[in-house]
Design goal:
Length: 297
C-alpha cells in the first residue's frame, strides 16, 4: 500500500512523492521539504503566540536561541554573567512542545520500506515545524541526552539536520530515556511500547509530572501485529540480539495473545495517568494520521 503527496505542496518539481519512501531519510533537503509540506497542509496553529502582550507575569529565565525576540533579553543579567538570557512567562511555557523519541533498537523494525524510528522522525519534524512557525518553544529528545531544542524556524532547520541522521542506539550500549525537569507545555512520546510495564510506569509518571499534557504515539507494523510472515523464519530480538528459528503459523496464536495482553496492560496504565494513546501503522498516511490526532486536541 502506498499513497502520494499531491495537493498543496511547495514546489511542482517534487509532486508525486510516494510514501513509504526510504530515500526520504537519506537526503536532508528532501526530508526537510516533505516535513514542511505536510505541516503546511495540516494548517494547525490554533493560537497566535502573543508573548509581548501586557500583563503577562515573568516566571523564569531560559537561554537565548537564534530567532528570539531581542526585546525579551535581560540586559542586566547579561552584564552580570556575560551570557544572553530570555525572560520566560508562564504563557510561553504553556505553549511549548517536547517530543520524546524512543530510539531503542526495536524501533529499527521496518515494514513497507520504512522503520518505526524513521516514521517517528518524520512526525517529529512536522510537529516541531508547526510549533516553531508559531514562535513557540520546541524540543525533541532521545536516550542519553541526545536531542535539540529551539524557538524559531532557524533553530528548527538546525535541529532537522540532527534529527534526519539520528539512529537507534547500539544493543551493547547502556541507554536511559531522557529525563528532564519540569517543562510544562505538552509532550508527545513516540514509541513502540516494548518496555516492561514497571519501567514504563516509572517513565510515564515522570512525563506526567513534568508536562501539562502527555500523548503517546504507538508505532506498529501490520505484519508485526498479526505475525503474518513466511512460515519458517529466523526471528532476531532487536533489543538483545538473540536469534530464534520458528514457524510463524505455529506460534502466531500464542504471540497474538501475549501481544494483546501487553497492550491491554499499557492501555490500563495510560488510563491511570490520563494519557491518550494513538496507534499508527507503518503504511498509514502521515497526513491523515496527524490530522486525526490534531483535530482531537
Amino acid at each position: 500500500m502506498a499513497w502520494t503527496l499531491e495537493e498543496g505542496l511547495l514546489s511542482d518539481s517534487m509532486r508525486g512523492v510516494t510514501w513509504p519512501d526510504p530515500g526520504l531519510f537519506d537526503d536532508a533537503k528532501r526530508f526537510e521539504w516533505v516535513a514542511k509540506s505536510i505541516a503546511k497542509r495540516l494548517s494547525w496553529g490554533r493560537h497566535q503566540s502573543k508573548w509581548l502582550a501586557s500583563g503577562i507575569e515573568f516566571d523564569q529565565y531560559r537561554h537565548y536561541v537564534p530567532g528570539d525576540d531581542l526585546r525579551l533579553l535581560d540586559w542586566k543579567k547579561y552584564a552580570r554573567t556575560g551570557r544572553y538570557y530570555m525572560r520566560q512567562s508562564e504563557q510561553e511555557k504553556a505553549h511549548s512542545l517536547s517530543i520524546h523519541l524512543d530510539d531503542s533498537p526495536s524501533m529499527a523494525y521496518a515494514e513497507a520500506q520504512i522503520s518505526k524510528l524513521d516514521y517517528a522522525k518524520l512526525l517529529a519534524a512536522v510537529l516541531t515545524y508547526i510549533t516553531a512557525s508559531q514562535s513557540d518553544h520546541f524540543g525533541w529528545y532521545g536516550a542519553n541526552d541526545t536531542g535539540c531544542q529551539g524557538r524559531s524556524l532557524g533553530s528548527w532547520h538546525a535541529s532537522i539536520r540532527v534529527l534526519q541522521v539520528h539512529q537507534t542506539y547500539s544493543i551493547s550500549k547502556k541507554a536511559t530515556p531522557k529525563m528532564i525537569g519540569s517543562m510544562s507545555g505538552a509532550c508527545i512520546w513516540m514509541t513502540d511500547l516494548y518496555m516492561d510495564i514497571p519501567d514504563m510506569e516509572k517513565y510515564l509518571s515522570h512525563l506526567r509530572g513534568s508536562y501539562r499534557e502527555v500523548l503517546v504515539i504507538h508505532f506498529m507494523g501490520r505484519n508485526e501485529e498479526s505475525l503474518d510472515f513466511a512460515d519458517s523464519l529466523r526471528f532476531r530480538d532487536l533489543e538483545t540480539g538473540e536469534v530464534v528459528v520458528a514457524q510463524s503459523s505455529v506460534i502466531a496464536e500464542s504471540y497474538r495473545r501475549a501481544l494483546g495482553s501487553h497492550l491491554l496492560s499499557v492501555q490500563e496504565l495510560c488510563r491511570r495517568y490520563s494519557t491518550e494513546v494513538h496507534r499508527v501503522y507503518l503504511d498509514d498516511n502521515p497526513v491523515d494520521f496527524l490530522r486525526r490526532i490534531l483535530t482531537r486536541r
